[in-house]
């Protein structure tokens, strides 16, 4: 899989997402990272919500994922990576479209996450996995 | 379903308090219980309290919509209370309009509106 560049900044926390409770734990860590940079409620809520979407996708479609949270204090940014080695995404444009779901969801997670954050990147390769990266300014 | 959601009858109104840890496995049981309780108690309305939620993502948004759907089917108007301002803004960006749910500022507002039948 085409890899996203290494993140700068400090690793804040790493979470394995293998059951639904892990989604809550990991997204709470994203919230703490934003708190650490003194983020306002709205900025924190946007990033935590977007992270929740991609973590749930990583669990539901990726069969489990690893979440890496980095703090870049200099730029007042929190970076969230969600990496899985699931089936990958065949048609990225389709997956990002609001209303498209291959499951029973609303199909608004990916598109919504993209609108909620300041940086959004996704790479995926069928049969290899998916790597989503988000960042929010505190 | 453990602490994932609480169901209480308050003055003929069903109060549903959703917890942050609600998961996929809780939803069907919660819907069933809500439908049963509304029916058995002849509840006049449903109030969904999300004040415990720091965020509402599409997953929880879908749960809220489904619970409100039960309200529609059972002719029990449904109000949502406890939504943080930041959450309201993110819901807009997720494109979750929740058409079958009315929002009230707090529980008292929801109850008095249900009482006055609007
Ligand atoms: N990590 C992933 N691995 C494989 N496929 C994915 C992954 N993330 C998303 N997808 C695909 O992209 C589609 C769209 O994702 P999106 O999050 O927008 O919607 P959803 O999860 O189906 O529904 P919602 O998030 O609204 O509950 C999914 O249905 C799935 O097919
Ligand atoms: Mg999703």
UniProtKB/TrEMBL annotation, chain A:
Superkingdom of the organism of origin: Bacteria
Name of this protein: Serine/threonine-protein kinase RsbT
GO molecular function, one term: protein serine/threonine kinase activity
UniProt keyword annotations, A-Z: Kinase, Transferase
Histidine kinase/HSP90-like ATPase domain sequence ranges: 45-134
Gene that encodes the chain: rsbT_2
Keyword Cell division: no
Organism: Palleronia abyssalis
EC number: 2.7.11.1
TrEMBL record, chain B:
Domain STAS: 11-114
Pfam family, one: STAS
CDD domains per record: STAS_RsbR_RsbS_like
Xref: Gene3D superfamilies: STAS domain
Transmembrane segment boundaries: none
InterPro entries: Bact_StressResp_Reg, STAS_dom, STAS_dom_sf
Protein name: RsbT antagonist protein RsbS
Species, as recorded: Palleronia abyssalis
């Amino acid at each position: 899989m085409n890899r996203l560049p290494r993140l700068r900044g400090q690793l804040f926390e790493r979470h394995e997402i293998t059951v639904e409770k892990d989604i809550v734990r990991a997204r709470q860590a994203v919230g703490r990272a934003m708190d650490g940079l003194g983020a306002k409620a709205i900025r924190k809520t946007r990033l935590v919500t977007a992270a929740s979407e991609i973590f749930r996708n990583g669990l539901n479609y990726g069969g489990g994922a690893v979440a890496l949270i980095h703090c870049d204090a200099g730029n007042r940014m929190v970076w969230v990576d969600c990496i899985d080695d699931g089936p990958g995404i065949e048609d990225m444009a389709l997956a990002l479209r609001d209303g498209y779901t291959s499951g029973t969801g609303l199909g608004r997670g990916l598109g919504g996450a993209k609108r909620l954050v300041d940086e959004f990147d996704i790479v995926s390769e069928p049969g290899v996995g998916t790597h989503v990266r988000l960042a929010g300014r505190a | 379903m453990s602490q994932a959601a609480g169901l209480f009858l308050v003055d003929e109104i069903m109060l549903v308090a959703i917890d942050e840890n609600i998961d996929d496995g809780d939803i069907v049981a919660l819907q069933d219980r809500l439908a049963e309780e509304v029916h058995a108690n002849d509840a006049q309305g449903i109030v969904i309290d999300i004040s415990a939620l720091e965020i509402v993502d599409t997953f929880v948004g879908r749960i809220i919509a489904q619970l409100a759907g039960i309200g529609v089917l059972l002719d029990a108007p449904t109000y949502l209370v406890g939504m943080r301002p930041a959450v309201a803004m993110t819901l807009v960006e997720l494109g979750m309009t929740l058409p079958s749910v009315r929002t009230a500022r707090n529980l008292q507002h929801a109850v008095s509106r249900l009482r006055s039948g609007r």
